[in-house]
Design goal:
The chain has 199 residues and is of the alpha/beta class. The chain is built from 9 helices and 5 strands, in the order E-E-H-E-H-H-E-H-H-H-E-H-H-H. The radius of gyration is 17 Å and the shape is globular.
């Protein structure tokens, strides 16, 4: 997560949405950067509002506007699965098919390899409602970059970083229906941004 104090802007780092590349591009000029541990880097809006925003207000900075990126749900799950296929992955999905990964994510108690939470939970504030001020789609990052260029008053270049290898995302028909039911909130969020689900 990055905070630009004078610009009154906080960029939440939703995992697997290009925030590592964004941090590499903008981190050196951010006033606050949470890089580690993952629980701080990928801080939810609720935690930001509860812990960081009050500290900033005490320092004389009104609550900043928040920014986040959301990815199409199937693509987001696929990125996690592919990322954990890497030989150096701390938590591995080696030997686990994408169908098995989605099945594990759909359980009420997820095994470690599929315990990745949800994008919508990252963006919820008080009252369990989506509360991020500006949400951009991962498949339209140009709009995010244009927004940031205007707010930060400078051109930005964001080279790719932390890119997962390409692999087919295959699901059985029954698993598609299960994912749509379990991930209904994720798909609703995506569609509210004008996105078309991949399934």
């Amino acid at each position: 997560m990055m905070v630009f104090w004078q610009k009154r802007l906080a960029i939440l780092a939703v995992p697997k949405t290009g925030t590592t590349a964004l941090e590499k591009a903008l981190g050196p000029e951010a006033d606050i950067v949470f890089r580690d541990p993952p629980g701080l880097k990928h801080m939810t809006l609720f935690r930001f509002n509860r812990f960081v925003a009050p500290l900033m207000e005490k320092g004389g900075c009104p609550r900043p506007e928040t920014v986040a990126v959301v990815r199409e749900p199937l693509d987001w799950l696929g990125s996690w699965w592919r990322y954990r296929q890497r030989p150096d992955a701390w938590i591995s999905t080696a030997g686990i098919s994408f169908d098995e990964f989605v099945d594990a994510w759909c359980r009420s108690k997820r095994p470690d390899f599929a315990d990745i939470g949800t994008q919508s939970a990252m963006l919820k504030g008080e009252g369990d409602k989506i509360g991020v001020d500006h949400i951009f789609r991962y498949d339209q990052l140009g709009e995010l970059h244009a927004f940031l260029e205007e707010r930060l008053e400078r051109k930005i270049e964001v080279p790719p970083a932390n890119v997962s290898p390409q692999m087919p995302l295959e699901l059985r028909p029954g698993m598609v229906q299960r994912l749509k039911k379990k991930g209904a909130e994720e798909f609703a969020l995506w569609e509210s941004l004008g996105g078309t689900p991949a399934i």
